[in-house]
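re the bet — no i am not wrong, look at it urself. input seq straight from the record:
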Amino acid sequence: MNRRSLIFIAKLTLCSALIPSQAFPGDLLSCSELDADGLFNNTKVKSAKTIAPKPEAGLPNYCEVQATIKPVRGSNVGVVYRFPSVWNGKLYAVGGGGFAGNMSVEAVSAALKKGYATASNDLGHESANSLDANFAVESPGKANEDAITDFGYRATNVTVKLAKQIIIEHYGKNPIKSYFEGCSTGGRQGLAEMQRYAEDFDGVIAGAPVYNALVYTNSVYRVQAFHAKPESNLMPEHVPLISKAVMEACDAKDGIKDGILSDPRQCKWDPAELLCKAGQSGAQCLSQSQVDTVRKVYDGLKGADGKWRAMPLMRGGEIDWVTRMIGTPEMPRGLNAVLGSPFVSHLVKNDPKYDIMSFDPDKGVEEIQKSFAGDRVLQENPDISRFTRRGGKLILWHGFNDPGPSPLSTIEYYEKVVEAIGSGADKAADAQKSARLFLAPGVGHCRGGVGPDQFDMLSALEAWSEKNEAPERIIATKAGSNLMRPLCPYPKLAKYKGDGDSNDPANFTCAVPDAN
């Protein structure tokens, strides 16, 4: 045992004897002492420094530790920890997005303001570019298996394990609660933690999780639908035309004409209504090829076995079509071609030059699932009973107009969770003691869209985990607007009572929507 370890044990023993169990002694090892060589196994601490408070941002002063973890020879996980001087006794870890982690202070600022110790990582590769999948290819045709494994699940696990070690060294206590929050890739990280490392967290917030193969076949299928031929694509000017027609057909079905479809599954508008008539052309209407394109993405793709190969897009979310699918000068084939689709070219085919237009989505789901990346990155196991048996709580959420991973996939996952962890005559009610899903009408991928996209899931999780107050409704707002709606636990959705201010959540009830 080295001298530093002996000093630490002596300090910890003294603090345990003199300080009540609910207090946190602080600075058993000061911030500057945390960068000592060899203090943590398989870890190189690059820096440990005190960051001054920023009153204008509401941020306290904290100790920032930057390090790299090398759990195996080919792995190199970058981490950043932030330890506030006034600690609330809890740990908060945040997820990444796209192909990158997120180590920015902005991603954890809300938790830091609450006094959380925070943990962030780079998912095992330094690039912070969410569109950069090059880490997955060691050489053309050869996967970087360690980097893919880190990206899939290992980086998050080693990050939280080291965080808890440093917390013991710095504060002298284990965290009383540990929570994870992430959306998209971050949502998938949350599912991986529950499925593979049930002891890491007491609560998980997983938004729009990119957890299954359909996330990637969705992207490829939509790129192919819009860009199969020049005449298949739409003009940007078609988007408001389609959106207006959808709203005229379906907006009032939920009792409020507000540009938001509370349940877009119930909208069956047919794009053939905009088929060009004699004397019409261009942005005034849709050609037959363009009608076919819109139908394809609204319908999705099923195989001969009746299972989805690509999920349908929800009507009402057309606002994102130019960026996602029609294309821009910077992304001619749209964001789907450079975000979701490279999973196929880089992680499955291990070939950055692979042309996704040649990929067959009908056969692609199985190919993705059977690939090395599929085994490491897909997190489809609904049996999270090890997590829930130890008191773990899961809040799933998804924007109902997400143009990337489908909310239908998250609904499907949640329903499988209910079957896996629920018991008794009412499995759904039993499962809701530990896991709940919230759908956000009008909201896109993690944020954006016409719906209210700002909500405090962390406070809801705290109340559930610490006070056993299960979230019955979560209030959602929209920046720069007075738009305000409740989000309800699935299968319920917010339903307008029929009178009163539609921006007052009190005028909504949570109810199961009528059958389609």
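see?? The chain has a mean pLDDT of 93. told u. also The longest strand covers residues 43-51. so pay up
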